[in-house]
Hints:
By secondary structure, the chain is mostly helical. About 70% of the residues lie in helices and about 5% in strands. Helix 2 (about 10-40) runs antiparallel to helix 3 (about 45-85), helix 3 (about 45-85) packs antiparallel against helix 5 and helix 5 runs antiparallel to helix 6.
Amino acid sequence: MAALKSIHIKDTVLRLTITMSKLNQACFLLFDHIIYAHNVGLISTDKKKWSNISARFWVFSLILNLARNTYDIMNIVQEEMRRQQLPKKQDQQVNGDTTHSRRSSNSQNTNVVRKIVMQNKPVMLDLVKNLADLILPLNTLGKVNASAGTQGFLGLISSSIGIATVWDSSLKLVP
């Protein structure tokens, strides 16, 4: 259903990344259900084979989500840079005294990054969730070797962000 809704998004990059991600997520969940049916004894199948297929769809879905996050962040940074370059009234006259607001470029860059993060929480939370999730299927595929503790911690981060977006809908990334 989400893939059908996303095909109407006007922005081509968002339309492609979101739609393809939703389709891959549907495949991942389908194969994950096959694994579940095997685990509860409903069917007998090659669990490792289906786990690998499921993990591949999950990885591709996460890569598409990360591409979307990167695209969103690039647009946010470009917009902020445009705002920064708008002519500002930098000199203020106070009792004949001129004050200039000058900061070091590192301090100014830190403030810009902080401003971008704080004003775009849904994008940043989605980015962190996708990065945390990425290790899990990569571990299943044998591309990384994450301990059970690391996997649990990353799952906790991802789940906590998921719960936060349900609890506070303003933190949910849309479209």
